[in-house]
Structures are given as C-alpha cells and as structure tokens.
Write a structure and sequence with these properties.
Blueprint: E1 11-15, H1 19-25, H2 31-41, E2 46-51, H3 64-77, E3 81-84, H4 91-103
Parallel strand pairs: 1-2, 2-3
C-alpha cells in the first residue's frame, strides 16, 4: 500500500478549493471514484478536505439536503476529516455541514 511509505502522516489533503470542480470539469474524472481508489491504496492514513459550509465544494449556497448528502457520500467514499468553514464565520452556514459530519462520525 502507498500508505506504508508514509506511516508517520496523520492525514492527507484530498479535496479543497477547486479540486473537486477541476477533476470533473477539466480532467473529466469522477472525483468520487478517485477518492475510492486512493482509499484502497492508502487505508491507514486519514483523508481530509476543506468544506465550504453551505457552499460545499461549489460556488454558491446549496440547500441543506444537498450539503448533508454530499458529506454522507464523501464519508462513504473514504473522507475522514472535514475542515468546515464559512468565509464570514456565519454560524447558520456552518451548522448543517457540521451536523452532517457528526452524523457520519467524521472529524
């Protein structure tokens, strides 16, 4: 496994900023499949991502059910740590995402 070469790492950054969009739009890849493949190759290191609160990994606000569904799918595909933020630190934009992470037992 690739993870054996980096046993001292706590986590690896998988998604953040525009990486999800770039994988789909420019590389024409399935970011979900890429995450699943990486998880199989690196089973012993936490995967983390930057999550834009109610914006998820997009550029506008999404309904709560979309945010919740995205977090669940990401956790199912192998994401462990969700670094949730809102550019204005507006708590209502953080609440749904943080609750979804807790429901998946993510960090």
């Amino acid at each position: 496994h690739l993870g054996d070469a980096q046993k001292g790492l706590f986590s690896m950054e998988m998604w953040g900023g525009a990486t999800f969009d770039t994988a789909m739009r420019f590389l024409r890849e399935d970011p979900w499949e890429r995450l699943r493949v990486l998880r199989k190759q690196i089973p012993n290191i936490c995967f983390q991502m930057l999550f834009r609160g109610s914006n998820a990994v997009g550029y506008s606000n999404y309904p709560d059910n979309v945010v919740d569904g995205f977090v669940r799918h990401a956790a199912d595909a192998g994401m462990d740590i969700f670094r949730v933020f809102d550019s204005l630190n507006y708590l209502p934009n953080l609440k749904t995402a943080m609750e979804a992470v807790q429901q998946t037992h993510g960090i």
